[in-house]
Amino acid sequence: MNSSKKRWFAVFGVITGVCLLGMAALVVYVDPFFQYHKPLPGFPYVLDNQLNQNPGIAKNMEYDSIILGSSMVVQFNTQWFADILGLNTMKLPYNAAHAKDQDRILNIVEKHHRMPEAVFLGIDLLPYANGTDTDAYPVPEAYYDDNIFNDVEYWWNRDVLLDYVIAPLIGKDEADDFHIIYAKNYYGEYYNEEYVLSNYVPEEKAKETVPEDAYVEAALANMQEHILPHIEKNPDTEFYVFFPPYSILFWYDCLQDNDVDARLMEYDVMMQSLFAYDNVRVFFFQNDPELICNLNRYIDYTHYDREVNLYMTQCFANGEKEVTAENYQKELDELRELVYQFDFSRWGL
Questions:
Q1: What is the dihedral of CA 148, 152, 154, 158, to 10 degrees?
Q2: φ, ψ (nearest 5 deg) of residue 115
Q3: Quick one: average pLDDT of 4-11?
């Protein structure tokens, strides 16, 4: 190889190295997934990636309480928790969250941040009836472990650089709001009965009845493996565990699936597993007919508007909708009666 080619390769290597180092330095400095530090003042951060951003937020943000759950919790505004409960709350939701997802993020909170004063945990029926090893989505380990060598996936990631560093600088005037993190895509004019019904496709009628205990083993396993250990080892943390209000159409699907009683038994055993702990309060919103039978509060058969989230926040403060070992069976019976007696023919079902 002649000297000119050697110089060319040397220059190319230096330029490439400088570019790679510059890219890594820019990503680490801005840190759009908050792996190393809190947000830079004034940078217009894009908050739209739960899988990649939650672990860094859990590690490095300041908070004294957290909200965990699925898309059922996304529309909580943490400013409400400050105004109503006096808490500096951070929201760490995962769409379609399974118990394992909650366990994973709680492990990060416990390891990298002092355990908060309060945990608000929304539990959904369908995911907790799955196996204990089930994730909502494949987990990008680089953002969840402490292996520095995995971070090359972050430093030299084209999408991170372009979508979360460069694009915000040239296309946005202000950062997304941490108070409503991940909620901006849920706002709209589609929370109404007509829209819900036009997009609702009911389940076909099942031929067999699902046994009442069909979901018990999985639900208890998920609680015992992923949730209860955190409650047990953090006795000074108050856990507000709540069951969100799906619309009555969800229960029509259960009628079609012949598993209403099985789903109610799933609620039953999960609640029973929680009542043994002094640091747990349980809230049950599912049997409120004013909520679940009013489709104008929903955008589909499960997702409600943010005013419902505000109402739940108020309940956490005033104790409304709280259930205990003494009265929870009555609440489940009310839900059972509501489901079996509701007139679905009003919607042609």
A1: 170
A2: -60, 130
A3: 53
CA angle, 250 then 256 then 261, to 5°? 75
How many Cα atoms are found within 13 Å in the side-chain-facing hemisphere of 16? 6
Q: Does position 156 have pLDDT exceeding 90, yes or no?
A: no
| Chain segment 9-29, per-residue pLDDT in tens | 544 454 555 555 767 778 889
Residue among 309, 54, 83 at smallest CA distance from 178 = 54
155 with 120: CB under 8 angstroms?
Answer: no
Instruction: Give pLDDT tens digits for 192-218.
Output: 999 999 999 999 999 999 999 999 999
Spell out the domain ranges in the chain.
64-141+176-347
Residue 235 in tokens:
């006795």
pTM of the model: 0.94
Q: What are phi and psi of 166, to 5 degrees?
A: -75, -50
Distance CA 187, CA 307 (A): 11
DSSP per residue, 5-32: HHHHHHHHHHHHHHHHHHHHHHHHHH-T
- Topology of the domain comprising 64-141+176-347: Rossmann fold (3.40.50)
Give yes or no for a contact between 239 and 115, defined as CB atoms under 8 angstroms apart: no
Reported confidence tier of residue 43, pLDDT bands at 50, 70, 90? very high
